[in-house]
Design goal:
The complex is a heterodimer. By secondary structure, chain A is an all-alpha fold. Chain A has helices at 3-7, 13-37, 42-61, 71-86, 98-101, 115-124, 126-137, 142-148, 154-175. In chain B, helix 2 (20-32) crosses helix 3 (34-71). Classes of the chains: A mainly alpha, B mainly alpha.
Chain lengths: 183, 89
């Protein structure tokens, strides 16, 4: 790992881009090779690899992984797990090493039940969705959100958070015509 | 502000941050209050939607990097070495 990689902050978009680019070039050949050897296509490799970045990002922001100790190895390991999960391949055949075996993938990763409602909310409440994403998905503190979204006080950021939840929750309620949308 | 208080309470319930007694009481309220039950379900779904949105955003960032890498003439060696892995099969 080079000095620059360890200093990059995954939460800052410009630095994330730089880090992801380095990881893309160093890890994709390995992942593509793994998937090609198991009969997967270039598109399978691309899809799995992109999902692996998402999982790596989530682990980094939740500090589940001592990031960036070895992000490249971790990314490759995640991709292998995703391959097995998505294509119902045999774990034993994947030939995971001891470190890779320890990697876990979020249970809900391939759950698509929220996709329809997510698309609706992206159209009708994108601003609120962006704010809530920063708080709940990126795990920023209210103070960080105050700065990033230019609120005058932490209190006003907090009030806006709850107003956004109310607004989007109402949309979810109106658009959930089928029971399975909420189950 | 009453609604904001309710949302906060539902959030505490969904995130498992209530004391065991408060949780029992809250679940008892949900049994008799159908609106509360619906709001809890919608808020739960909203958190799943936020995750799904966050994932889409990260994925679209990575896709942009991919498009850049696979269209940049100066990276043709990288591109060809990857494509060779699939053409041999």
């Amino acid at each position: 790992m080079t000095e620059t990689e360890t200093l990059l902050n995954i939460l800052i978009p410009a630095e994330r881009e730089q880090l992801f680019m380095q990881l893309y070039e160093s890890a994709f050949p390995n992942v593509a090779n793994f998937i090609a050897n198991r009969g997967g296509s270039f598109h399978d490799a691309k899809d799995i690899f992109h999902d692996a970045f998402v999982v790596l990002y989530e682990k980094a922001v939740r500090q589940e992984v001592d990031f960036p100790e070895a992000p490249e190895c971790y990314l490759v390991g995640i991709a292998k797990h995703l391959w097995v999960r998505k294509f119902k391949d045999d774990y034993k055949k994947a030939g995971l090493d001891e470190l890779e075996e320890l990697i876990t993938i979020p249970e809900d990763y391939y759950d698509t039940s929220s996709n329809r409602l997510t698309s609706i909310l992206e159209l009708t409440g994108r601003k609120c969705l962006g704010l809530l994403r920063a708080l709940y998905y990126d795990g920023l503190s209210l103070e960080q959100v105050r700065k990033a979204f230019s609120f005058s006080t932490v209190h006003s950021a907090s009030v806006q958070k709850f107003k956004c939840i109310e607004k989007l929750r109402d949309t979810v309620q109106q658009k959930s015509l089928r029971y399975e949308d909420l189950a | 502000m009453k609604t904001l208080h309710d949302i906060k309470e539902i959030e505490e319930y969904l995130q498992g941050k209530m004391s065991p007694q408060a949780q029992l009481l809250f679940e008892a309220r949900m049994l008799i209050d159908q609106l509360l039950k619906l709001q809890v379900a919608c808020q739960r779904r909203l958190y799943a939607i936020i995750t799904s949105f966050g994932r889409r955003m990260i994925k679209s960032e990575v896709k942009q990097l991919h498009d850049h890498l696979f269209n940049d003439p100066s990276r043709h060696e990288f591109r060809e070495s990857i494509q060779a892995l699939f053409s041999e099969k």
